[in-house]
Design a protein that fits this description.
It is a single chain. By secondary structure, this protein is of the alpha/beta class. It is built from 9 helices and 8 strands. The longest helix has 19 residues. The two termini are 25 Å apart.
């Protein structure tokens, strides 16, 4: 959303889990600052209505070419074909896939790990050939819930081995508030680069508005 609306970067989202209308409502919530549950329940106050209307117009006007939402394609080969077409027709530069474990991957494989590795390698190749960025979201193993240290590690990636090997970068999100709702990190999230083929690893704090599912920059001193 930031790439398309704020930076003018034509973007494509494959939403395998959520419907296009739900994704659009989420985007309007993020852009307007009106909580998503209020939009979902049509419970928008008079003071929020103006912000909601302006955000809806902004998001919907971008849906034709700057921001394309595909909620029907899930086959890997069709995803690649759609990316190629969108690059040729709209100059797409950024693609998001939500999420990797729901993608249908053709072919026979000995393990699910090999299957996921093939998918990530295919996406990495198409990103290289078309000179675009592709962000593929992934689930993590639920074993993290049993640990004392809840911060995600590379090994927590579901079917992690080949995903970890094939990806150019692996980023994780950790919110201490999820586990300690009364702690000192309420409203904060930690974005970590766990692997970077062409970048350093590290982490930074950002603000997180859970009512709108929105990440915000913090002042430089706060974010370190």
């Amino acid at each position: 959303l930031h790439a398309a609306l704020d930076c003018g970067i034509p973007s494509l989202i494959f939403s395998i889990e959520m419907a296009k209308d739900d994704i659009t409502d989420k985007m309007i919530s993020i852009t307007s600052g009106v909580p998503y549950r209020k939009i979902l329940n049509a419970d928008i106050s008079e003071g929020e209505w103006d912000r909601f209307t302006k955000a809806a117009m902004k998001v919907n006007s971008a849906n034709s070419s700057e921001l394309i939402i595909d909620d029907t394609t899930r086959d890997l080969n069709k995803i690649v074909s759609t990316i190629r077409l969108a690059k040729r027709k709209y100059g797409i530069q950024f693609v998001v896939i939500d999420y990797l474990q729901l993608v249908t991957i053709p072919g026979k494989y000995n393990t699910r790990d090999e299957q996921m590795g093939y998918a990530v390698n295919t996406l990495a190749y198409i990103a290289k050939m078309l000179d675009i960025n592709i962000l593929a979201l992934s689930q993590i193993n639920r074993g993290v819930e049993a640990r004392i240290e809840k911060r995600p590690m590379l090994s927590d990636l579901r079917e992690s081995g080949n995903i970890e090997q094939a990806a150019w970068r692996v980023l994780s999100i950790y919110r201490d508030e999820y586990y300690n709702p009364e702690g000192d990190s309420v409203g904060l999230a930690e974005i970590a680069v766990l692997k970077g083929k062409v970048s350093n690893t590290g982490k930074i704090l950002v603000g997180f508005d859970k009512e709108c599912t929105k990440f915000n920059n913090l002042d430089w001193k706060e974010s370190r």
